[in-house]
Amino acid sequence: MGNSSAHETDGSRRPQQQIPVVVLAGFLGSGKTTLLNHLLHRSAGSRIGAIVNDFGAIEIDALAVAGALGDSTVSLGNGCLCCAVDAGELDVYLGKLAAPETGVDVIVIEASGLAEPQELVRMVLASEHPGIVYGGLVEVVDAAEFDDTRARHPEIDRHLALADLVVVNKLDRAADPERVLALVGSLTDRAAVVPATYGRIDPEFLFDCRPSEERIGQLSFDDLHDQGDDNGTDGLGGNGHAGHLHTGYDSLSFVSDVPLDPRRLMRFLDSRPEGLYRIKGHVDLGPNDLRNRYTMHAVGRFLRFYPEPWAPADERRTQLVLIGSGIDTEALGTELKGCESDAPHADEHGMWGVLRYVQGSEDEPDPEPYGG
Predict the structure, then answer these.
(1) Paired residues of 25 in beta bridges
(2) How far is it, in rounded angstroms, from Cα 248 to Cα 250?
């Protein structure tokens, strides 16, 4: 995500980048394993570390197994890694996958059989590994069976209320897809709700894909799948639709040479709308902190700021990217524009709201985005 740890702000060097850890949850049959397979096959040049209970449903047979990091970790031919673990091993393998030598860009934990989604999220948030950052809870639901699933598993309402992103899968099989989408949306707490078939969502929802130029000279598994699609198959049990993602996303790029006022910025963040899933980038807070820029990482309701010293060659400006589903990008741009301030002097208490979300600060909120 291009986010940075705040452990070093003395100006000696820029902090290390952190790897987002995404928790993927959903009841049996919802399609979360299909979604994970889709991400593994369509990683767009990025390296995915996948932590799962059982390799059985992951399509390793279709991949060239190239080696191993340990007894339960295999390296896949497209640069992805898979681990089979239980909850007690989770932190160990998070550490292994986050090691710089793996080159992993994102870690996806398939929650089935490991623990309650909320417990997995808490474990990720409680990890003290400086190389990872929470990347969101993604709940997958089966649109065709949603009513029956709620009857059998009433706890799904609680799971949806906790989710940062909800993928309403198998929408093409639902008798009344609009009703299901509206019902799911009513059960979430401002989460982005996106429709999908065959678990196909755009990877950019979850992580920053590497530029394809980084794969020059090496035929990746993505390339092989592209060739397969030309022959009418997608390698995922579909009929050649892998190149047509059923779930797009809305994004806004905001750039400003005028510093942002920290109070106004926090009001904007506190009231961010439904469907706004990710915010990434860095903020210039002008006279309120002349020394540092603030890298921002927000996913769902989770928020962190990472102060890092401006380098002499840096242009002092704010650069943010907002990603969501069904968001009003024009209105969001106007709201961010309203956060600009050319005041020459600092607001004495203006930084308090921002500093509450700096990791390690004395009054940092409890690292539990769900309040219980």
Answers:
(1) 139
(2) 7
